[in-house]
From TrEMBL:
PANTHER family: PHOD-LIKE PHOSPHATASE METALLOPHOSPHATASE DOMAIN-CONTAINING PROTEIN, PHOSPHATASE, PUTATIVE (AFU_ORTHOLOGUE AFUA_6G08710)-RELATED. Residues 158-508 form the PhoD-like phosphatase metallophosphatase domain. The lineage of its organism: Bacteria, Bacillati, Actinomycetota, Actinomycetes, Kitasatosporales. Coiled coil: none annotated. This is Alkaline phosphatase. It comes from Streptomyces albus. It comes from the Bacteria. Gene3D superfamilies: PhoD-like phosphatase, Purple acid phosphatase-like, N-terminal. Residues 52-142 form the Phospholipase D N-terminal domain.
C-alpha cells in the first residue's frame, strides 16, 4: 500500500493465507518457451489442472470457480473458511470434455458475506474415481452485506500489437504488482486477448535490441476457427504471474473488439487478405463461445443460453457494477452524423436494461464499466468512427444520441454516484463532463477514468469531443504509436471506497505501481 492510502478493512492475514496458493502457482509453472500444451503431469495417468484456477462474478453469497483439465474429468470444488480446509464444503461440478475445450465452472451459493473463501479444485477421472489430480487452490473474498471498505482494480488490453509473453521481462509483470494491492476483484475492460494480432518469436525494437515472445501455433496467425480462438485464451494462461493473480483475485470480465478483430461490428464483411472467413458475425460467435469457456461469467452459457456479456454485479451496499457490451449490439461504424439513431452503440434492449437497473440500484456508487470511452474521438479509417464521439462538438448525433438519452435519464431520475471506467485507447487519462461546457446540457456532471494497457502497444492521446463538455484533468500517453512495454506506457486503475464515509478514491497507476493521478469523490453528490 502506498503512503497515504486509506485502509479498506481487508483481512490482514490474506498474504499468509496465500502462501499455499503461491507455492501452488510456482509448482504450476509452464514452460516460457515452446508450445501451449500442458506440461508433464505430476502423476502419470491422472487428470491435471495446469492452467490454474480462477473465480469470477463474486457477490455477497455466490461466485463462480473455473478450471481447465488436460483430459475428460469431473470437476470437484471444496470451500472452507481456512486454508487447512477443515469442515470443507464439497461441490460436485460438471464433466469437462472436448465440447468446452476441457474447461468448466462451478457455481457456489450460500457463501457467508464479507468473508475470505478458500477453495480447491480437484479433477476426477470419470471412469475411475480413485484417479484424481493434485488439488489446485485459490481464494477470494465475498462482498460485504454491510457497509465495509471495497477495493478493486481495472485495466484491459493484453498481448496486443504483437507484444506477448516476454521471458526477459518475466512474462506479464503488471499482474504481480496488481496482486500485491490485494483487491476484492479485478475488472477487465475488454481486449482480454488479441485474436487479430499474431505473436512472432522475435521483434526488433527501434534501438536495435530484440523483444522475445513465447509463441504457440494458435498465435501464429489471426484467429478464425474455434480452436484458434480457444488457443488465444490459453496463450495468456502460459504466464505464471497471471495464473497466480487469478488464484487470488476474482475477475469481472467484459469484451471489446480484439476478442474478435479490430473495430468489428455485427454484419461486417471483411476485406482483409489474412482471413479466409470474411463474415465477422461468424467469427464473433466463435470468439464468444471461447470467451464463455475461459472466463467465469454468470450470464454466459451454460447458465444463460442467451449469452449476454452485459450484466450488473452487486458488491454490497456501497457498489453496483454495470458491465456494458458496446460491441455486440452496435450499428455499423460510420461518420456518425445521423440525426436519428435508436440502435446506437448499446442497442435498444441493453439501453433500456441499463436505465431500469440504474433506477433500481440502491448502492452508494454505480460504476458503469464501459469497454469504450465516451468523449475520446476513436476513428475507424479515414471517415468512420469506432466509439461514441465523432469529433463534432455540437448537438448529439449518431451514437451520441443514445448516450444523451442515458445521461438525461440519470439526471431526471436523480441517480447519484455514477462514474464511468474504461480502457481501450492504450493510455491513461481522467476527464470530467460538465453541462456548463457542453453543447448538450440536460445531464448532471460526471467523471470518466481511462486506464490501460496491461501488456500491449502504447498509443498517443486522442482528441476530445465537446458534445458532453469533457475537461481533461490528467493524461499520460506515449508520443508515437505502438510503443513496446519496455518503454513504459502500461497502466491500471485502482478504486477504493471507504466503508465509513462512503468516499471513493480513484488512483491511476503505471506498471511499477507508482500513482500518477488521484481523484477523491464524495457520495451522494453530483459535479464533484
Amino acid at each position: 500500500m502506498a503512503p497515504g492510502e486509506p485502509t479498506t478493512g481487508h483481512t490482514p492475514g490474506r498474504r499468509a493465507v496465500l502462501r499455499g496458493t503461491a507455492a501452488a502457482g510456482a509448482a504450476l509453472s509452464l514452460p516460457l518457451l515452446g508450445a501451449a500444451t500442458s506440461p508433464a503431469q505430476a502423476r502419470r495417468g491422472r487428470p491435471s489442472a495446469d492452467w490454474g484456477v480462477q473465480a469470477g462474478d463474486v457477490t455477497t453469497s455466490s461466485g463462480l470457480v473455473w478450471v481447465r483439465s488436460d483430459r475428460p474429468a469431473r470437476m470437484v470444488v471444496e470451500t472452507a473458511a481456512t486454508e487447512s480446509f477443515r469442515n470443507a464444503r464439497r461441490w460436485r461440478g460438471p464433466l469437462l470434455g472436448p465440447d468446452t475445450d476441457f474447461t468448466g465452472r462451478t457455481a457456489l451459493h450460500g457463501l457467508p458475506p464479507g468473508e475470505q473463501i478458500h477453495y480447491r479444485v480437484t479433477l476426477v477421472d470419470p471412469d475411475d474415481p480413485r484417479r484424481s489430480s493434485r488439488p489446485v487452490e485459490g481464494t477470494f473474498r465475498t462482498a460485504p452485506a454491510r457497509r465495509h471498505g471495497v477495493r478493486f482494480l481495472w485495466s484491459g488490453d493484453l498481448a496486443g500489437q504483437g507484444w506477448g509473453i516476454n521471458p526477459d521481462r518475466g512474462g506479464y509483470p503488471i499482474f504481480d504488482r496488481m496482486r500485491s494491492l490485494d483487491p476484492d476483484f479485478y475488472l477487465n475492460s475488454g481486449d482480454a486477448i488479441y485474436a487479430d494480432s499474431p505473436i512472432q518469436e522475435r521483434v526488433t525494437l527501434p534501438d536495435g535490441s530484440v523483444w522475445r515472445n513465447v509463441t504457440t501455433e494458435e498465435k501464429s496467425k489471426v484467429a478464425e476457427t474455434l480452436a484458434e480462438f480457444r488457443g488465444n485464451f490459453r496463450y495468456n494462461l502460459l504466464d505464471q504471474k497471471l495464473r497466480r493473480f487469478n488464484a487470488q483475485v476474482p475477475w469481472i470480465a467484459q469484451w471489446d473488439d480484439h476478442e474478435v478483430l479490430n473495430n468489428w461490428y455485427p454484419g461486417e464483411i471483411l476485406d482483409d487478405d489474412r482471413y479466409t472467413v470474411k463474415d465477422v458475425s461468424t467469427l464473433a460467435a466463435r470468439s464468444l463461445r471461447a470467451f464463455s469457456e475461459y472466463f467465469p461469467i454468470s450470464t454466459l452459457p451454460p447458465k444463460d443460453e442467451e449469452g449476454r456479456v452485459y450484466r450488473v454485479v452487486r458488491h454490497g451496499p456501497l457498489l453496483d457494477l454495470f458491465v456494458l457490451d458496446m460491441r455486440t449490439y452496435r450499428n455499423a461504424n460510420s461518420p456518425g452524423r445521423q440525426p436519428d439513431d435508436t440502435q446506437g452503440i448499446l442497442g435498444r434492449r441493453q439501453l433500456e436494461w441499463l436505465k431500469r437497473e440504474l433506477s433500481r440500484s440502491r448502492a452508494v456508487w454505480k460504476v458503469i464499466a464501459a469497454d469504450m470511452p465516451l468523449g475520446l474521438v476513436v476513428t475507424d479509417g479515414k471517415t468512420d468512427f469506432e466509439a461514441v464521439a465523432q469529433g463534432d462538438p455540437g448537438a448529439p448525433l449518431g451514437r451520441e444520441l443514445q448516450i444523451a438519452e442515458l445521461l438525461r435519464h440519470i439526471k431526471h431520475r436523480r441517480i447519484t454516484g455514477t462514474l464511468w471506467l474504461t480502457a481501450d485507447v492504450h493510455y491513461t487519462c481522467a476527464q470530467r463532463y460538465d453541462p456548463d461546457r457542453a453543447a448538450f446540457k440536460d445531464f448532471a456532471p460526471f467523471w470518466e477514468f481511462v486506464s490501460g494497457p496491461l501488456n500491449a502497444g502504447g498509443f498517443a492521446a486522442l482528441k476530445l469531443d465537446g458534445t458532453f463538455g469533457p475537461e481533461q484533468k490528467f493524461v499520460k500517453a506515449p508520443t508515437r504509436a505502438n510503443t513496446p512495454p519496455t518503454e513504459g506506457g502500461q497502466y491500471f486503475g485502482q478504486v477504493d471506497i471507504d466503508g465509513t464515509s462512503g468516499e471513493l478514491t480513484v488512483r491511476l497507476r503505471e506498471e511499477s505501481g507508482r500513482v500518477l493521478f488521484t481523484q477523491v469523490l464524495q457520495p451522494g453528490r453530483v459535479g464533484q
